[in-house]
Structure formats: structure tokens, C-alpha cells
Amino acid sequence: DKAKVWDTIQKEFKCCGVSNYTEWKPQFENSTTQVVPASCCKSTSNCNGTEADINADKIYKEGCLTKFETFVKDNVFIIGGVGIGLAFVQIIGILFAFCLARALRKEYEVV
Fold first, then answer.
1. What is the C-alpha end-to-end distance of the chain, expressed in Å?
2. Which ranges in the chain belong to alpha helices (H)?
3. Partner of 1 at 20 to 30 A CA spacing, among 69, 101, 102, 111?
4. What percent of the chain has a predicted confidence (pLDDT) above 90?
5. What is the CA angle 91-92-93, rounded to 5?
6. Nearest-angstrom CA–CA distance, 99 and 111
7. What is the CB neighbour count within 10 angstroms for residue 98?
8. Mean pLDDT throughout 57-62?
9. Which of 73, 72, 46 is nearest to 59 (CA)?
10. CA-to-CA distance for 102 and 111, rounded, in angstroms?
11. Max Cα–Cα distance, the chain, nearest Å
């Protein structure tokens, strides 16, 4: 479910919306009080994503895109290291496959 994914992202990165919290307002047009999801709230107590919560600074106002960009920039070496590690494991697998194919070919030539 998309809503659960967004809730998780907004809670983990402490953000609201892609660019900022105002992007959620059209989604809650039919609501009489709520204007952003509860996952935008800084604290789960006494916050429901209402206009009053926004005015009282109870929600995250920064967008998730900038938070995610910062996360990637801060962890670029870890992400790159994991990528290089996975590539190395695949190369080792290819080498073992070649060795196995070569051993099988030699075995058939003997018989």
C-alpha cells in the first residue's frame, strides 16, 4: 500500500511530502480538519495533521527529496562500497563458472 510506504519514509527521514508539506493539502480536500498525514507529525501525541498542528510547528515542513539527497550524499562511500562488493562477488561467481565448464570439458575429452 502506497500510504504505508509514504508513512514509513516520512517517519524515518523526518519529512513531509516530496518538496514540502503543502503538497498534501489537495489529498485532504474532503477532510474538515486534517491537511497532512499524521506521519508528518514530529510527535505522535497531540498531533493529527491539522492546520493548528502546522501553525504550532508540530509537523515536519521540509520535503523528503532533500532529506533523501542528504542521506545519499552522507552515505555515498558506503553505498559505493556495497556496490563494488556485490560486483566483486559476481565476478568471482563468473570465474568459478568458467573453471567448472573447463573441468567438465576436460572430463568429457578423457572418456
1. 58
2. 2-13, 51-55, 64-74, 76-110
3. 69
4. 77
5. 90
6. 19
7. 10
8. 94
9. 46
10. 15
11. 84
Residue 102 in grid coordinates? 573447463
The residue type of 90 is Q
52 three-class SS: helix
Per-residue cell: 73: 550524499
Between CA 10 and CA 81 the distance in angstroms is 27
CB 41 within 8 A of CB 47: yes
Residue 48 near residue 33, CB atoms below 8 Å? yes
Instruction: Retrieve residue 54's grid coordinates.
Output: 502546522
Question: pTM for this structure?
Answer: 0.70
User: Residue 6: its pLDDT value, please?
Assistant: 94
pLDDT at 109 > cutoff 90: no
- Do 24 and 35 meet the contact criterion of CB atoms below 8 Å apart? yes
Q: Which residue, chain included where needed, has cell 509514504? A: 6
Nine cell digits for residue 1: 500500500
- pLDDT value of residue 30: 87
